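=== Discrete structure encoding ===
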Amino acid sequence: MSVRYFDLIREMKDNTYNHRLRLVESAKERGIKPTARLFLTTVPTVRKWLRRFQQQGPAGLAGQSRARRHQPHKTPLAREARLVELRKTLPTFGARRLIREFDLPIGHDALERIWHEHGLIKKRRRKYQRKQDLAHIKASWALFQQISADTKDLDDIPRYWLQAQRLHLPVIQYTARDVRSGLLFWAFAEGRSASASAVFASRIQQHLDRYGVSLRDLVWQTDNGGEFKGDFPKALGHSQHVRIPPSAHTYQSDVETVHRLEEDEFFDLEDFSSRGDFLAKAHTYQLYFNLARPNSHKNYQSPWQIIERLAPRSPLELCLLPPVFLDYYLNDSGGYDVPRQPYALPIMEADAEAVCAEFHEMRRLTAVRKSFQGRFRCGSKGDSGNDRSLIGKRRSGALVRRRKLLYWIEGAWDRTRPSQRQQPEAGRFQIHTARILNGRRTHS
């Protein structure tokens, strides 16, 4: 033979078994040293495969992994179980994001390895090549220079559709987003109509004007749908209204991105017990998105952080406009009525239920955070070297910042005073909203 044993094995890959079997048979027939000279290999190699064949039979000739049998720095089993449970709780969150959100003391490669071993990694959707990245251009815009508005069908989300049929939840979502900061506004309705769109725009316009945003410099961008015609341009007042060209869907990329994110992070995760519970959890996610969720496309800053940096005197209430059911504002003649203050909801049973549920939801933020802190604690000092928490330490001034938001919601509670108060199940995103209330400063 003219080829060395090791070079031949490296090239054969899939058919190494037969070559090793011939080596073992030659060693039995000729001896170990003559076989080593014949196969151009070493005596210990021939002796190794002959010994394995004698001890394990033909299975001993298969290649064995050279990886370590014991890894001293491997994640402990107890912590691994908690990380698997966290993945099952938030299956749409990636490894880097969970590490960032919960301050996990683990690398993203190790976390993905654990998920892969437990079959918790899903195949990613194929992303189309980005032809134009206008992020650097939009980063130079002013706050509230442009708001992109659009609607979304919710009846094509399997998990949500079953609950919507049972609880009579809305099937159309109205979305508006400031392009510069990413600030998000939500509302819901049973269908698309120009009157509902006008109510949606009027609430946002009154809200922005209340906190000092110049409406004359604001441009609303929409598609050419019928819901953005008729009453909608009139509701914008002094603001401008522009429509995108037909089939130019990339013009609305800022709001379309939110539609994808909210489906993965909210509608595919949450369970609802009533219409009020749905509205309360929708508001909790909106608070999380506006206050706590870092946007990787905006240098890992939340909308509130961007607003604080560009307009330091802006009040926190600018981010707190709650979502509503637009159908309650429409009258029988097809028109709409919008109160002077966007927070003064009509005194109706469903609205009162929503405000009560929202109030209870925020009241329980502290308890939920404490429960998760204890639930995902790393263990004893002997386990991890220090007693760190997977969520992290509380920041200073947490109670003051949390109370300011609670007092604002409590104002809506005092205005309605319903007869029956409902306490919904805790939402998944309360934890993240609590983190921002623990660490972000506000302006009075």
About this structure: The chain has three domains: 5-61, 77-117, 144-439. Confidence is low (pLDDT under 50) at residues 339-352, 362-405, 407-428, 440-444.
